[in-house]
Amino acid sequence: MEHIRIDHTYILNMIEPNSHVLDLGCGDGELLWLLIKEKNCRATGIEIDEKAIYKCVERGVTVSHVDIDSGLKDYSDRRFDYVILNESLQEVLNPEKVILEALRVGKKVIVGIPNFCNIIARLQIFFLGKVPVTKGLPYTWYNTPNLRFLSIKDFREFCAQRGISIERQRAIGSKNEVFFWRNLFANVAIFLISKN
Amino acid sequence: MSQSFVETKYFTFAESPNELVLKSGVKFGPITLAYETYGQLNADKSNAILIFHALTGDAHAAGWHKDAKAPGWWDPMIGPGRAFDTDKYFVICANCIGGCKGSTGPSSINPASAKPYGMSFPVITIEDMVVSQKYLIDHLGIKKLLCASGGSMGGLMALEWSVRFPDTLESAILIATNYKHTAQQIALHEVARQAIMSDPHWNKGDYYGKELPAQGMAVSRMIGHITYMSERSMEEKFGRKLQDKEKLGYDFSQDFEVESYLRYRGASFVQRFDANSYLYLSKALDYFDLSEDGDLLKVFKGAKSKFLVVTFTSDWLYPSYQSKDLVRAMKANDLDVSFIDISTNYGHDSFLVEIEGQSKLVKYFLENVRAR
Fold first, then answer.
1. Rounded to whole angstroms, what are the CA distances from B171 to B159, B162, B213?
2. Which of A1, A106, A144, A173 could be cross-linked to A80 through a Cys-Cys bond (beta carbons 3.0 to 4.6 Å apart)?
3. Which of B53, B60, B189, B348 is catalytic?
4. B residues 112-141 near A, CB within 8 Å?
5. Is A121 within a domain?
6. Could you count the other beta carbons within 10 Å of the beta carbon of residue B303?
7. B166 touches chain A (CB under 8 A)
8. How far is CA B296 from CA A89, B326, B334, in A?
9. Is A50 close to B340, i.e. CB distance below 8 A?
10. Separation of first and last alpha carbons in chain B
11. Chain B residue with minimal CA distance to A72?
């Protein structure tokens, strides 16, 4: 499997074959297409960007042009085997509601977040006194789609406080997987979560 | 490319004693449907696409008739290499029952009286239109359509087909459509109908061979055109520009470009469309309600096809929220449905003029219908 994004690889790995999958903020549908091709999944996406929708339809990926916050209402409980929220959580208006709704609609949820408290970011805040702009998080404060800024530790605490179990967790540094001191060295983390 | 002309064909059925029982309960026949086909039907008859026209459309969806000044109404969408690719698919379009372009309608001759039906023509519904076209598809030997598609009224018909004949349809593309007329939509149609019916020349529908209700038709068409455009597109196209004038005339002749446009469009409409047909078809639209008892979820229980639902942001006649209700009900029934709300200024007419984006979506969607 060449040229597949590393986070997509981890997510593919977490999903059982022949599953029914919903991707919230699916972009151009690349992940869903991989899931269909490699894992024979039944896939649906939700995406707000019109241009991205065209790409999804081109790939044959089922997609709805709605925003995440309202799109989840259309689905009944535990309708999907997996709901994916990869790199889309920081752009939603109400992340808590979205995560809880995702856990209602999906038996398991996969969340991918950027880790805003990695060491480069911390050094920039400490030494430069500025909000960090790093290779992994390249946006400026005035030109960013991100509404939320969280760290791996923040997310783990969030889950613990709500009785959400983290079944698996993987983290990516600038190039490779990070196994230790993730909150410090990881740029991105992928969590497989569920709630009873 | 050699210029080959398209010919309209005719199919007659429901001849006595096998008249069609219409939704109203009335038994009616014989029925003739004018239709055209583009492309070739493949050996196992699996590449057929049925296109439904909108309120004032007809069977001539694409290509050129001999001596015509313009091609079919959806020519940019249907043809070799186009969205509905006639190199791959067999595309069919029929004039609906109640129409006036070759199919049996109020302007057709009643064989019993040897005179036009006029207002003695039975009130037909969207369901009747769809049922009658099923006879045509059966006649062509097609057991399962690859796709049914249309915009506006055409979309309603494709929608009805998907729930009425679910086993005969692989996919449906519904563009700028809805599933029932709201009070405002009915009201707009009522005004258009009243414009025709209050024209003294309408004469209770008995105007064939006599003076046509041209003024009434013109006014109803003017209303139609306003609903098909958006506030933005009208402002961009016309603004307050004056027609062939430097200053306002301070009389009631034509001042503004938009007035001239509406008058021109209104006047030319009566040349190509039958007034009674307009009454019958607009009424069929107002009558239609996919969720007859209000339960849209129930309606889709037996549906099987893959759906692509397309709306346009500036379409205020058939606003996106109605299609979103449809999509919600389809999703609740675990149907495979894709939905897009295309950003455009053209209003309801976008399905006829905003070809580029729509073409891509249709092309890709059709390519992937059989992907899994």
1. 10, 8, 41
2. A106
3. B348
4. none
5. no
6. 19
7. no
8. 32, 8, 14
9. yes
10. 35
11. B328
Interface of A with B in 57-116 (CB under 8 A): 57-60, 62-66, 74-76, 79
Q: Cβ of A60 and B368 within 8 Å?
A: yes
Q: With 50 as the cut, is the pLDDT of residue A1 above it?
A: no
Topology adopted by domain B185-283: Rna Polymerase Sigma Factor; Chain: A (1.10.1740)
* Number of domains making up chain A: 1
DSSP string, B271-330: HHS-HHHHHHHHHHHHH-BSSTTS-HHHHTTT---EEEEEEETT--SS-HHHHHHHHHHH
Its CATH architecture, for the domain B9-181+289-368, is 3-Layer(aba) Sandwich (3.40)
Residue B320 falls in the annotated catalytic set: no
User: Which residues in chain A touch residue B331, judged by CB atoms under 8 angstroms apart?
Assistant: 64, 74-75
In chain B, which residues have their Cβ closer than 8 Å to the Cβ of A64? Answer: 327, 331, 337-339
CA–CA min distance B237, chain A (Å): 25
B341 touches chain A (CB under 8 A): yes
Q: Which domain holds residue A27?
A: 6-115+149-194
Strand, helix or coil at A109?
Answer: strand
d(CA B326, CA B53): 20
| For range B46-52, the mean pLDDT | 98
CATH number at residue A30: 3.40.50.150
CA–CA min distance B365, chain A (Å): 6
Q: Is B315 a catalytic residue?
A: yes
Domain-embedded: residue A136: no
Say whether B348 is catalytic: yes
Distance CA B293, CA B295 (A): 6
Mean pLDDT for all residues in chain A: 92
End-to-end CA distance of chain A: 35
Which amino acid does the sequence have at B360?
A: K
Residue A15 reports pLDDT greater than 80: yes
Sign of CA dihedral B246, B249, B254, B259: positive
Q: What residue of A is the nearest CA neighbor of B340? A: A65
ipTM: 0.90
What residue type is A39 in one-letter code?
K
**Options B152, B277, B314, B320, the catalytic residue:** B152
